[in-house]
Design a protein that fits this description.
mainly alpha, 3-stranded antiparallel sheet, 11 helices, 3 strands
Length: 259
Amino acid sequence: MFWVLLLLLAWGFAGTACTRLCLAAVRAAAADGRDAPTDGARDLTLYEAAFLSGGPARVADVTLVSMARQRRLLLAHTGWATVVDPRGRDEMERSVIGAIGPEGQSRLAPVRARAAGAEAVRRLADGLVRAGLAVPEGTGTTVGSAVRQVRASVLVAAALGVTALLLPVQTGTPRLLVGLWFTLPVILALSCLAIARFEVHPYSRWASPAGQRLLSALAGKPAGDERSFLTSVAVRGVRAIGEPELRAAFTHRDQPWRE
């Protein structure tokens, strides 16, 4: 009766994964309800839209692009950043200038990393979390990770079922019956996935449901050319940059032998 132990393992994997998904969905729905009153109560700034769309790295990229478009920062297609105007107009710009360093010139990749980890970005994130527009750090992928665990439990239960069927024949237990027993945890997991597919809100890594609704509203608002361009970069990332030279600064990769 070794197959019974395998069946218990299959039920354990499937039951645990489905329970985690249900709890994550309930918590997310409760958070959605708490965040609902914030809808329409405010407009997102450019930096807030960038964070909700792509996190700290997107905030750094939008700041760099904005300064480059104003000719206060030179971003070369070779991947170098050079300060033209050392006076930052807000704390994000001052963080970027500080990330470039006192020499006024640096490789762009480390600048982006340092600017993304600056205190100004952390304060921005904390404010969005308090407003119910961003998810707390470490919980943005709760529902998504639970769904992935349920998918994995389907594979585990199926593998355990195949293993049980490959065991030597045991008298009194038809193989068909063994296979049917193992289909039950598989059906449970697949049912949870089907329900999640149609009922669970598509949560992002950074924005809460309320934050996602404000992002959708932001995309539909008319704006000036420059504001519209920077908003597009905030929402879509550097792939929204149309200028080849500027886009090359972000996509440039050094050869391994270069410093």
